[in-house]
Amino acid sequence: MNNPVIYIEQKPYTKSELLISFSEEELFTLGLRGIIKQSNTYYKFTFVGVVSVRSVAFAVIPKIYTRELKESALLTIKTLKRYTKTNRDLFEGIDFFNIEPDNPECSELAIAEFLLEDFQSNGIYTYRDRLYEINGNGDIHWVHTVNDLDPIYSSGQPIYTDTINHTIIEDTFNLTAAIQKWGLNYISEKYSVFLGIDLIDFDFDYEEDLSEIGNPEQLINHLLNLLQTVYTDREIYLVKSLIFLIRSKTGALESDMSLYGTKAYSTIWEDICKQIWKYKHSKDSYFPRPKWDILGNNYESKSILLPDIIINDNENNTYLFDAKYYSLKFKSSLSGEPGYKDILKQFQYQQHIENKIEKAIGNFFLFPANEDEFSELKEDEHAVIINNIILIGNIKYELYPGKKILIILCPFKDWQQMYLENKSLEVTNLKDLIS
């Protein structure tokens, strides 16, 4: 198995550390695309997912993790794939999940996954052709026999002393198969570690150098011609994927970089929290649009104020959650906390809902915690453990007397796994915290 190259989002790396894996030019390209940012003498990744820049493929895992582990990378990649299956509101320049080989922004990782899974299901591409022969092997092809051969008539009945027979020729040593074999070896070495697939020991001969098969332009023309003769979705996607792979490998695409992931893993954390608490979009209009009166004309704002998660349990209790993708630190001093506006907004949400329903609600910030932090906090005498989440305190603000935001730490890795398995928690476990 390959040794994966893994980095942690927002962790500071020196230039010398990065130059172990990248050239100066590749580092510049990463900065140009906003995948990495320089801060003083350090560099920080601002992206979570898998990146391929020329020959190097690497993963960036969420900032909540403290160790560059393959297990964390695999789990994170799976959460990204899970997110794209249920969320179509992706943002250009932020989310990079394109899986269409027609698109130059398509992810090589997505192509790699398809090609490996297709090979495991269907094997090497087989070129099939029909061979027609007079009195040959195979089944008699009566349409051709009747149309092309003259019979002998006996008692008015035609008798064919010769027949046209047909056989189907299957060729797995064709040019397309050679390209596929090269591609499988290339992507297996580059991406199998990030797909959780053991490096495949292929039982066929293949060329490691694409140029040994042919000129890239000629190979692409061959595949484009083949595209006109295939009809199944699988074959069309296979041929298009091989075209993309050749163009990517030979630098014929607009960019030397391939991305699968996001610059805003906070949206995935929010989606994880929504599933954990079984949130469904509320039909209750707690927050109507602002109304404008200008020169005698009335208008409504197009945008609407909408908290992350509002849930009502079967006892008519209301819970307000805000998913906070922050690395909260609080041992010697407080750091990594949400900004003033986020806190003010959450209190405003609480006050408005309580005024509307005329009863107290639960108000919570949901922070992710890594395994080490979570295990350590379980031993703290001030921590309150509730169904494998930890209440560590609250936020109060004198502008909102009698109200508080409860601070909940959530086991990040466990919740990622629950997200994949579509598991959830019962919100009623928190009802005693409403006051």
- Radius of gyration (CA) equals 30 Å
Low-pLDDT runs of 5+ residues are none
The helix fraction, in percent, is 25-40%
Q: Which descriptor suits the 3D outline?
A: elongated
Count of DSSP strands? 21
Residues in β-strands, percent: 15-25%
Give the oligomeric state: single chain
Strand order of the largest sheet: 16-17-18-21-20-19
InterPro entries: Restrct_endonuc_II_LlaJI
Keywords: Endonuclease, Hydrolase, Nuclease
Organism: Chryseobacterium taichungense
GO molecular function, one term: endonuclease activity
Structure commentary:
By secondary structure, this protein is of the alpha+beta class. The protein folds into 3 domains: about 5-125 and about 175-260, no CATH class; about 125-170, no CATH class; about 265-435. Helix content is about 35%, strand content about 25%. The strands form 6 sheets. A 6-stranded mixed sheet has the order 16-17-18-21-20-19. α4 (about 110-120) packs across α6. It is elongated, with a radius of gyration of 30 Å. The mean pLDDT is about 90. InterPro entries: Restrct_endonuc_II_LlaJI. This is LlaJI restriction endonuclease. GO terms for molecular function: endonuclease activity. It holds the Pfam family RE_LlaJI. Keywords: Endonuclease, Hydrolase, Nuclease.
